[in-house]
Structure formats: structure tokens, C-alpha cells
Amino acid sequence: MKTIKVLIVDDHLVVLRGLRFFLQTQSAIEIVGQAQNGEEALQQVQALDPDIVLMDLMMPGMSGIEATGIITEQYPKVKVIILSSYSDRESVLQAIKAGAIGYQLKDVRPEVLIESIQAAMDGRKTLHPEATHQLMSHVVKENEEEKQIDVLTPKERVVLQHITLGQSNKEIAADLHISEKTVKTHITHILAKLEMQDRTQAALFATKNKWFG
């Protein structure tokens, strides 16, 4: 079995020592180096050619996210596993987008970390349950937002699009060749279906979700 070369990146010496102490007991793993920030990590990757990088997120100087993006782009054979104390949705999403193949929290059980390292060597992604939950809730949220525009009729969508352009009811009525009263009725229906308080909120929501390009 090929020995897995691991580089540990973390700015907390206690974490570094703890990881080294445990991983050194694994016959299939060789600790080839350590770093305390993103810049050092890049230097070590270039010099030591590790198979796996265990990467912290929040470090002085270059963050783990930025370093992960550079490593996965410039050294595609190197697999990065995030090992962080943060499990918020934004951190998980940024790490995955940067190319991390795994996302584990620092309270991960040792045997699970080993499984994650082995999985990364096989090209398989692994996520801590909390990271999986964050990704799933993000997908659900996106699906809910995508579905919301479907509750509007074609005419209501057109009216909402005009609202996002900052047009008044009178201007919308003139452009669509309908009465202002009809425009107001459409807006009432739009706000009710989207559960919005006013037209400004509806326009901001539509713009944020890029409903109209």
C-alpha cells in the first residue's frame, strides 16, 4: 500500500501537535511537513509534493479558502481536506467551490479523519454531517427560491420585471397597455404569492435571485 504523504496547515500549535501525534501512529500515513498559514502552505506544497493537505480556514495572512483555491488549481493531484472549527454554510460552500475534496470539523473522530484521508486518495468527497446539513439546506433554499417565481403568472412576472426597473404603476400600465387598476391588482397578487410586504421588497428579492438576468 502506498504511503500517504500529509501536510498539516493550522495556526494553532496545539492542533498541529495533536494531529501529528495521532497521524504518526498510522503506518499508511507520513507527515511530510506543517505550515501555519496559507503562504507557508503553498511553499510547502511546492517543496514537499504531499498527497493530502489538511487545511485550517481562519489563519493570519492568506486564508485556507484562498490557499485551497490556488493549490487545487496549480497542483491538481494534491487533495485538500478542510479541517476547521467553522461549520456555517458560507464557509462550507466557499471551501467546496475552492476545490476542497473534504470538509471535516476539528471534533471529528480520529477514525473518521483517517477514512476521509483514504477517501480523498481515491478521489471521493467526504463531509462532516454538519457540513452536509449546511449544503443540503443551501440546495433546499435555492430550490424554494426558484420555485417561488413559478407561482406567478406570465403577466405577473412581466409586471414584477417592470417593477425591478423602477417603473411606476402609471409607466407599467402605459408600457403593457393595461389600466393602472389592473397593474395594482397584479402587484397585490405578486406580493401575496411571494409573501412580501411591498413592491420594493419584491423587486430586491427578484434582483437578488437574478430572475430577470
UniProtKB/TrEMBL annotation:
The keyword RNA-binding does not apply. InterPro entries: CheY-like_superfamily (IPR011006), NreC/VraR/RcsB-like_REC (IPR058245), Sig_transdc_resp-reg_C-effctor (IPR016032), Sig_transdc_resp-reg_receiver (IPR001789), Tscrpt_reg_LuxR_C (IPR000792), WalR-like (IPR039420). Residues 145-210 form the HTH luxR-type domain. The modification 4-aspartylphosphate is found at residue 56. Pfam families: GerE, Response_reg. Keywords: DNA-binding, Phosphoprotein, Transcription, Transcription regulation. Transmembrane segments: none annotated. One of its GO terms (molecular function) is DNA binding. One of its GO terms (biological process) is phosphorelay signal transduction system. Residues 5-121 form the Response regulatory domain. PANTHER family: TWO-COMPONENT RESPONSE REGULATOR. This is DNA-binding response regulator. It comes from Paenibacillus paeoniae.
